[in-house]
Amino acid sequence: MEHELTIKGRAYVAGIYEHPTRHAPDKSIAQLHAEVARGAIEDAGLSKNDVDGYFLSGDAPGGTWPMVDYLGLKVRHIDSTDTGGSSYIIQLGHAAEAIAAGKCSVALITLAGKPRTGHSPVRSPGAEADFEAAYGATTHNAYGMCAMRHMHDYGTTAEQLAWIKVAASHHAQYNPHALLKDVVTVEDVVNSPMISDPLHRLDCCVVTDGGGALIVTSPEIARSLKNPLVRLIGHGEALKGPNGGKDFDLTYSAGVWSGPRAFEEAGVTPKDIKYASIYDSFTITVLMQLEDLGFCAKGQGGRFVADGNLISGVGKLPFNTDGGGLCSNHPVNRGGMTKIIEAVRQLRGEAHPKVQVKNCDLAIAHGTGGLLGVRHAASTAILERV
Ligand SMILES: CC(=O)CC(=O)SCCNC(=O)CCNC(=O)[C@H](O)C(C)(C)COP(=O)(O)OP(=O)(O)OC[C@H]1O[C@@H](n2cnc3c(N)ncnc32)[C@H](O)[C@@H]1OP(=O)(O)O
């Protein structure tokens, strides 16, 4: 595929910041946005006045313009794309495109939410939301259906899914900010209360307050700053819908399209990837996306994730070394932000020493938003240490 307007190497992630809080009853969502913005700008070694592009998903009071005012930014480009869990991986690509097209040169991207102590519903946005609200969170049910179908079609087991939480918990024990720090076993997962058959409580992500932010900038500006150089070399986004009722195959996600596009643009394959940040709203989310991205064949995800294959230093594909959404942090249903942050930490060599991948020069950050298998958007980013 020819990419006339490639973003390959045209944007660098120069600043990252993850809010340490998981419980912020006394802060507003706007305040959390401001705190993570300050953190990422400082990490980059820039000042607020350098920011000329602002990217935000649907998680701020009043939307993007009021946040521009609240943060005191003077920007010439904004983007408010909201696709749930994949929003911030899509935003990373959009920031790179805007920088490549000269629409801005220093993009600030912020995420903040308070689903734990405030009002940020844990369910997908969409036309059905008002009808579902009366029953509480229904997101779990859609993911449960995907897991059930995967088990039916491919023989995937609850124990195999559990290995994904086990791996995340191994990593979370080293993260001082993780909500859950206890290492769990396969038995712990499969014996935890059933939430949406076949998903147990421990197959689910945590509910936390918090946020994160990125500074994305041009190669020239990134090279003038102090941080190790990390650049975006491939990006893909794709949508999957029920297609007028004709496509209800729940066993694959739009990652089957976003992944190959990103790999092709980057000129690398799944075998080259040293570290993977994979969106982990539920264990089944990880398993299906690993298949869709080509880390293993469709239907083989259960075997691939078993026996610690996702644990750093143990298996072949270290994933979510911060503990991910399954154990550490899942502020609002837009966890793609923390996926990018941990991938950049790995590429900079700044992950916790117990989970840092040796010679980590190529990483993937991938997410889906909406209802996995049903109606959702996927996005894939391939990042490289220069
Ligand atoms: C929509 C998109 O675009 C994509 C998405 O992001 S979809 C994902 C959106 N997010 C979610 O759906 C959130 C999923 N998680 C949950 O809803 C809840 O955590 C849950 C239903 C799994 C558990 O809630 P609960 O049963 O009310 O548990 P709660 O009363 O809070 O805690 C009870 C115990 O379980 C533990 N616990 C809670 N959630 C846990 C989890 N996810 N994993 C492990 N342990 C958990 C608590 O620490 C607590 O332990 P102790 O008794 O030792 O203190």
UniProtKB/TrEMBL annotation:
One of its GO terms (molecular function) is acetyl-CoA C-acyltransferase activity. It comes from the Bacteria. Signal peptide: none annotated. InterPro entries: Thiolase (IPR002155), Thiolase-like (IPR016039), Thiolase_C_2 (IPR055140). Keywords: Transferase. Residues 245-384 form the Thiolase C-terminal domain. PANTHER family: ACETYL-COA C-ACETYLTRANSFERASE, NON-SPECIFIC LIPID-TRANSFER PROTEIN-LIKE 2. This is Acetyl-CoA C-acetyltransferase. It comes from Bradyrhizobium macuxiense.
